[in-house]
Amino acid sequence: MFRHYLAIGWRGLKRDRFHTVVSVAGLALGFVSFVGAYVFADYVASGDRKFPHSERIVAVFQRTSVESMDLALPMWSSTSTLLADALRSEFPDLEAIARSNQSEKVVTAGPEHSYRRVRYAEPDFLRIFELPFVAGSAAALTHSRDAVLTVQAATAVFGTTDVLGKIIRIDDIDVPVSAVIGPIPPPSHLGRSIGSDGFEALIVTRVPEDIEGSAERQPPEEFKWIFTNQVNTYALLPADGRLTVDAINARLADFAARHVHAPTAKISFEARPIEALTTEAANDILFLLGGLSMSGLLLLLGGLVLATACLNFVNLAVARAATRAGEIGLRKTLGARRAQVIVQHLCESTLVAFAAAVLAVAGLELALPIVNRWLDLVLPPPHTAPPQVWLFLAAVTLGAGLAAGAYPALVLAGVKPIAALRAGTVRAGSSVFRTLVIGVQFVLASFLLIAVVVMAMQNWSLRKTALGIDEDPLVTISTQPFAAKVDSETLRTRLLASPAIKLVTGAGRRPWENSVGGTGYSRTPDRLDSFQFTQTQNVWYDYFEALGMPVLAGRVFSRDFAEPSGGPPRVVIDRVAAEQFGWTNPADAIGQTIYQTPFGGKASPQEIAGVVEHAPRGLVGWGARSFVYILNDRDMGFPLIRVARDNVPAALAHIDSVWQSLAPETPLRREFADETFGKSYRMFDNVSRAFMVLASFAFVIAVMGLLGMVLFITTRRRREVGVRKVLGATSKRIFALLLWDFLRPVLIANVIAWPLAFMAARIYLDVFMKPVPLTLAPFLASLAVTLALAAVVVLHRAIESSRVAPAALTRHE
After folding, report:
1. pLDDT tens across 98-108, in order?
2. Is the separation of the CB atoms in 706 and 746 below 8 Å?
3. How far apart are CA 587 and CA 472, in angstroms?
4. pLDDT (tens digit, 9 = 90+) per residue, 604-657?
5. Which residues have CB under 8 Å from 144's CB, separation 6+?
């Protein structure tokens, strides 16, 4: 019987090719969106799962917030260096606990110097993570420091993988190469993963200072839990299951009260499965905080597009049902029962769904290599997915087919045989339901379109305001002179010896890096609830001149003015900070005192020396857009060099020559500021394009649904049009009536989508330091595009219906 239903369904689908193709195409787009989101989510969730006993590996996260600033900070995987020892005393049942950190360092091998991604780790790290050794082994790592190189790094540094026993030099310390490992299977935070390429050299160390830092640079005891958040802390659960993640977290609830001495901060901890590290990296793509996740967001959007596709399928099936009344009437006359009609059409809808799923998987198989190159990912193709993924896809496909086909099947099952045979068409279902279906489709499509327009506006604003096209280029050096043992004043003097160099300055963060750093400030020292998070930036002399930031009031840092030695340090704030503190006139802020977040129970006063225009050289701020600039006259930080635009090659050659003479053993890493901006901006541009693809899918599907409704309604209302013409209605009036009936749900859908899109746009724009104003433009653009597309779809059919002669429309009456 089931084979009979499938055979009949297949013949029906072949007979009505237009509806079949449109239905399959619409559902396929929905499946592509949802399955693509699921592939990404599954990829993220499988982080580090290819390590042996990965189910027993946990990472401990830490949340640190200062009591005077009630910031909704998330848990971070970066923890205090003190945490591991506290865990060892609290959880002796854990098989292993290890700390690890990673940074870029200069690696010297013979005369060659190069920057490499170096990860330091305690010996138990190798008990937790069983690395793929191709030479040497974990047992061979017996020195106080041992280097483990990847095959790629060994080849790059030494030109061969036969490197056991060779020496590399890091931070003026010789380290023997004791092992070589192959690629770590992705995704993994230790290897290739989202937002990370992993390490190139692993230094297994038994020297605490390698992890904790030198003793002379340690903060006071009460601040160690706050200012030493620089390591990952891993643990390996016992194999017998006597200690679980839930059990650890139950005891971590009051762990801080027993082990943490930090009177000025609120600190909490949470143990999470190891895949949480790749999830965190994925969330960092959009700087998502709180309960949001990148995987959840993509699954939500993919689900919305799939829901739009299912609604489109329902609408097309209902429209098709109206033209199949004669067939259904004949079947019922010949004895078909209501249940058989329902099963027959559920089989047809399921066939369409599985055809769409097959088409979607084939499309993803072809598109994923392009997507991986586009987003710099290594998402696996669908054919490599494990069995549970295919079972999930089959369940989703079956559910979508049955859910989308249920309503049309019920409508067809309720057809009266006599009425259907006499008229050939019937009233298929509720007109309110059909209008609602179209409305919901366009609500989702309009929501996504508004999101795309807002993203495009923000991206256009970033491109426009980020860099002055006619300015002299700004060169940034990624190596700090202090780390290279170069005196900042000496570097500046040597650089300015060339007429191709115009200005030399420096800052604690390079322009256009995606980083956020700040603290709380208030106008009063005693009201903890008045402290507001403010971005802070350490700068050197000439910073504002080099970055083109005009002075609005007071003065900026200069060698001509000696900063006070006994009084409060002087700072420069921007216009937005002045307004935040209540000074609408920048001149009113000069000489005023602001107080930095209290540490140790006492707020730190700072005197405002000047106010500059708000022109941050950064993209994101998590809602904190104001800036306080602090002078660091001892060290320029990252050098920033303004070069003459008509002599750039000479300027770059001079920079290279000066650096080579001052730091011959430290490779120079330099780039133009617009290159840094391009790297940071590319992430938002990729996300915007991904949204654009989803919005395009939703619009195509919604237009398909509207087309189905147009075909159905114009067919059903032919007699009504004939009667109206007989009674004197003109073709123009009938055309206007039909057009308004079709466009009305689209218009209403836009109005419903606006408040939802407004809230989503506000959340997105709050990420940026300089968000674009949220005007009516994106909402009106969405309205114009949707109405225009709907009008194009409706126009031909409405004109055709309005021109038909009354006699031809009413001859059956």
Report:
1. 999 999 999 99
2. yes
3. 30
4. 899 999 999 988 777 776 667 889 999 998 889 999 999 998 999 999 999 999
5. 205, 206, 207
